[in-house]
Design brief:
By secondary structure, this protein is mainly β. It has 2 domains: 80 residues, Sandwich (Immunoglobulin-like); 55 residues. It is 9% helix and 41% strand. The chain contains 1 helix and 13 strands. Strands 2, 3, 5, 6 and 7 form a 5-stranded antiparallel sheet that branches. The N and C termini lie far apart (82 Å).
Length: 177
């Protein structure tokens, strides 16, 4: 019995002397950060920034603060970055971002361009074939052909009025059936 207690005590003391280890999760103390400004270098507040890991497809969202700053604390990986804000053309960061979780990555200033004032009205009427009934469940998307940006998207009936600026556009219509 004394031998069993001695063995148990020795085993217990071995576990007590093992130093603890810290397991680090997916987030990091290091970050990917950048500032978002308009073409006049003024910070843009509440820009939705989307960081997507290339291999896993996992997505993280952040919004810029009052100084136009956005910061992500992801685990290591390769990322694509996109920025969206009403009234501005969307931005896709041109490079894949490599983040090793060993140091900060500062992307600097990312500039977003204002969408020009909408000065024209585009009337769109889509009828069911051979009738005067508007198509229901119509999805309408309007793209700026020069930039490739989606500037309008709506779901509804085939009678729509869209305010547009001077430019060249592509309209994509889709409906069920």
């Amino acid at each position: 019995m004394a031998t069993a207690v001695l063995v148990f005590t020795l085993l217990l003391s071995c576990f007590v002397m093992i130093p603890g280890t810290t397991v680090k999760g997916a987030s990091s103390t290091y970050s990917i950060s950048f500032n978002v400004t308009d073409t006049d270098t003024d910070p843009i507040v509440n820009v939705q920034t989307v960081l997507q890991e290339v291999h896993t497809g996992s997505i993280d969202y952040e919004f810029t603060d009052s100084s136009g700053l956005a910061s992500f604390n992801p685990g290591p990986g390769y990322f694509m970055l996109s920025l969206v804000k009403n009234g501005y053309f969307s931005v896709e960061y041109p490079d894949v971002i490599r983040f090793d979780n060993l140091s900060n990555v500062n992307l600097g200033i990312i500039e977003m361009e204002n969408i020009p004032d909408k000065v024209y009205t585009l009337g769109l009427k889509v009828y069911e074939t051979g009738t005067t009934d508007f198509v229901e469940g119509l999805t309408t998307q309007l793209y700026d052909s020069t930039r490739g940006d989606l500037i309008y998207s709506d779901f509804g009936i085939g009678n729509q009025t869209i305010d547009v600026y001077s430019g060249t556009f592509k309209i994509v219509l889709s409906a069920p059936g």
